[in-house]
Amino acid sequence: MKKTMRNQTTLIRGIVVLLMILSMLVLQLVIPLSATTPKLIIEPEQKDVTRGERVHLQVKLSEVQAFKNGVEGYSGTFQYDPSVLTFIEAKNKISGWAFSTAPTSGEIKFVGYDDNPPNIAQKEDIVAFEIEVEILESAPSGATKIAIKNAAVADTQFNELDASTKESVLNIVDKSNPEESSNNQLKELIIKDGDTKLELNPKFNENTLDYKLEVGENTNTIDISALPVDEHSKVISGTGSHELKPGENIIKIVVEAEDGTQKTYTVVVTKKDKDKEENPGGEKPDPKPEEKPDPKPEEKPTPGDKEEKPKPDTDKPTSETGKDSNGNTTIINNNSVNNYISTIEGISLQPNLSHDVNEYHANVGKNTDRLNLKVTPEDQNASVNITGHESLTFGANQITITVTSPSGEKRDITINVNRSETESSAYLSSISVGGYALNPGFKEDVFFYNMIVEHDVNHLAVTAAPKDANTNINIAANNTLREGINYIKIHASNADGIMNTYVIEVIRESESTGFKLDHSVLWAGVGTIWILILAVVFIMTRKKPKTIVYEKSQHDEKI
């Protein structure tokens, strides 16, 4: 009997332990509790770099599996030594995610997040974005540190946690002249009429220098692009847009190797002549019968008339003549009139860059006393001159960018820059979300809020007011709400490059029920149940006190 009871007690305890383990596993799947967080790591494409070289730095999201449902966002500050490096650009590498930066001298604030519900959470290690920097010519030899500070990552519930990072180092070495490449060949030569690629005769080969090409009478311009075999060589002339005249057009594409030696590829483009098409063979033009009566009576100069100067041949391409390293004469077609700008980096313009706009406005912070502008023309043979950007005073400043096309046509772009005299912050003074109350109530230094809306609410009108007038505001993801969890992001950035992101978690109720069980309530409920179960088990399995029965002996009877 006693053995049977012991077996029952052991069985009950085993079942209780098994149920507890199973319930904890289920809760772990439903509510991720992670002791570690993903990392943001800088991985340079190369460690040893030379002055004047551009280097790509990949910023990788690592150990993403620490969040069971994946990573939904990240932020931080990339720091570098501005006396050694200069920032060129940053590019997003996660498709479907939003990405923005606020660069200042020595640091770049960045933020990336999934802005396209349903979520595109990252569940595997991935390159989040890429930063391109250039080594300054004045940079000293030796190691320079690059690092990410104040890094954070967010899970699919937009719970933001600190992310661990690791410093990286670039080693600046002197360029060795004896090892400079002499490769001045092209790997690719492409000629297009609009979006149509034109075929060269013969087909392109890096060792073939002379080509022919025929185009129709309606082709007035062609675009040429060329890619060198050696990454250290460069195309110094001949690419870009070229206007064509009827007949032969000679275009020279000159490639310069790292050691300065040059090679010239020649393309003779023949544009069909409409007049010759109407008179096949060109041997029977017989212009005399087609001539009108003798025009001489109409050419009677009168005293005092200025002698008419011959008109310049506008169809004749402008050209420059020079010699390459082999002594060969080169002719560079400079007929392009393209003086438009492709990109302006280093400043945020209002409005956005456009062919139709020649005047822009921008605001910068109190600490910005100069601008490092990078202007890229559409025609790489065009020249760019920038004035007014190196010394900014408080208040109004004017920067002028003059772009001169190869044919000499000039275009002036004006940027009116206002430099603030006071410190500014990237805080909001208020947020309004379609008449709904925020939880908690709005405070400028609180960046996460939540709210619940009815099922029939599929979008929200969101407005936000900046604390400082120079703060730019961008609102995302408020126009389409899906059932369940949605995140509205409000980005506030000022002229000094400071950026804050306010996040509003909006739960749109399902059509059947608006009930939502809070995680903390779930944990508390489960804990209470198991305390009760343990109490019951303890009572049931408790050993009962033995009852001692005394039997009367003969000795007792005698007494």
How would you characterize the overall build of this protein?
With 559 residues, this protein is mainly β. The chain has five domains: 2-31 and 517-541, no CATH class; 36-175, Immunoglobulin-like, CATH 2.60.40; 178-277 and 316-335, Sandwich (Immunoglobulin-like), CATH 2.60.40; 341-414, no CATH class; 423-514, Immunoglobulin-like (Sandwich). The chain is 11% helix and 41% strand. It has four helices and 34 strands. The protein has helices at 2-30, 274-278, 519-541, 554-558; strands spanning 39-44, 48-49, 54-62, 71-79, 85-92, 97-104, 107-114, 126-135, 142-155, 160-162, 164-166, 168-172, 186-193, 196-198, 210-215, 221-228, 234-237, 240-243, 247-256, 262-271, 319-323, 329-333, 341-345, 359-364, 374-377, 383-387, 395-404, 410-419, 428-433, 448-453, 462-466, 472-476, 484-493, 499-508. The strands form nine sheets. Strands 2, 4, 6, 7, 9, 10 and 12 form a seven-stranded mixed beta sheet that branches. A five-stranded mixed beta sheet has the order 5-8-3-1-11, with no helix packed on it. Strands 14-13-16-18 form a four-stranded antiparallel beta sheet, with no helix packed on it. Helix 1 (2-30) runs antiparallel to helix 3 (519-541).
